Amino acid sequence: MIAHNAAFDMSALRAVSDLYAIPYPAFDYFCTYKAATQVWPELYNHKLDTVSAHIGHQFKHHNAEADAEAAGKVLLAMLKERLHESPKTLSGKINMRLGKMFPGGYKPCSIAKAKKKVS
To answer: CA spacing 20 to 30 A to 61: which of 24, 69, 70, 117?
Structure first.
């Protein structure tokens, strides 16, 4: 699954699942917000509209279908720029751990902190 600021989407999915006593589905997810901070650190922020403008994509923000399309286009632009074929290989290159949802729990998508150099 691909989402921009995936933490929000995953919390909504967990809340609905909890409310209706539905087990969490099992899948990995990729956060284009977190990835954008690594791929385009020079941007003044990494909101979906800012990142979309950076790649030349215009859309109607806060429309679920348009937001999903924009997140997909952002991912494709990242893959093209970094010469990767999949979100999994890109995440490895930018030190991002894919998020995981699974029955009974979840692990958030995260970026590994840079290691301090020892002199």
So the answer is: 24
